[in-house]
């Protein structure tokens, strides 16, 4: 097959969607069966080992480039199908002009379920376009059954066109960092000896305000335990900053910013546990990354996180400070629980791989191209 792929999210500082784009495409390429034409309008050193077609002039607004230059390129090369791994696609494709079948990945529907956690521009763009694009798609991929159910409930699509394909941890998380790497990262990040860890972009949906407040509750009983927040700044992060600055425990809460995979390897392995009480996720990559590193996990009941954890985590109500604080206390105090969760988590992470994700993704495109 010849597949045109939008890779604009495969960029420096990438998080969930960008990591998904990179890993599924690298694994698909490794299958060696198809011609994947990677399209972008930006130059990145990230693509040094990947053949990419730079299409059209650089545009500050990705959506404008997609609706113009990328749509024209699709009409020109006429691929068997086009792949848009970040929700959006050209509207001309939805109208079948030109007639190139396309597949989109809908990672979650937080834009409809938690609109208050997004910027006004993003709310308008996605809520306006996504129903039309979903209706015109030859197939829709979701990272979990929970997101698939949301898509079927909210978007105008046929059930047979929506396929849930789980994600996986980067294979690098399976490797144990050496002592020199651990020491270097501890010094660079100024890590305390004992800490609970939160990983993810600093944005309202990650529920970090409640996590900080829960930590404040347990902190007096555990004076040697700190909280480390790893993630870059996101939209509407002002409330998180205010809560952190006003916290009675702010000297024991460390925001280390966006970190590399090497740093994450160390953070996951050195932490008492990962605390990920997100309000809503389509998958939740940090959960399976932590499990691959052997870190015990606290996460939310509901959305996709129960599905991803598969019984290998402490599950809490993300709206309950009491439950979050109690879960953190259990993880700090109960060595046997941490050992049990570590073993379960390693087994769960081993069930998932990007090779499996790529094979299942390719199977969807084979059906689309044939049809």
Q: How would you explain this protein's 3D organization?
A:
With 371 residues, the protein is of the alpha/beta class. The protein folds into two domains: 2-168 and 353-370, Glycogen Phosphorylase B (Rossmann fold); 171-350, Rossmann fold, CATH 3.40.50.2000. It has helices at residues 16-31, 62-77, 91-94, 110-113, 120-136, 145-154, 179-189, 208-218, 238-246, 261-270, 285-292, 305-309, 321-333, 335-350, 354-370, and strands spanning 2-6, 35-40, 52-54, 81-84, 102-105, 139-142, 162-164, 194-199, 225-230, 253-257, 273-276, 297-300, 314-316. The strands form two sheets. A seven-stranded parallel β-sheet has the order 3-2-1-4-5-6-7, with helices on both faces. Strands 10-9-8-11-12-13 form a six-stranded parallel β-sheet, with helices on both faces. Strand 8, helix 8 (208-218) and strand 9 form a beta-alpha-beta unit. Helix 7 packs across helix 10 (261-270) and helix 8 (208-218) packs across helix 13. The protein is globular. 43% of the residues are buried.
Ordered list of secondary-structure elements with their pairings:
Elements lengths: L1 E5 L9 H16 L3 E6 L11 E3 L7 H16 L3 E4 L6 H4 L7 E4 L4 H4 L6 H17 L2 E4 L2 H10 L7 E3 L14 H11 L4 E6 L8 H11 L6 E6 L7 H9 L6 E5 L3 H10 L2 E4 L8 H8 L4 E4 L4 H5 L4 E3 L4 H13 L1 H16 L3 H17 L1
Parallel strand pairs: 1-2, 1-4, 2-3, 4-5, 5-6, 6-7, 8-9, 8-11, 9-10, 11-12, 12-13
Helix pairs in contact: 1-15, 7-10, 8-9, 8-13, 11-14
Summarize the structure.
By secondary structure, the chain is of the alpha/beta class. The chain contains 15 helices and 13 strands.
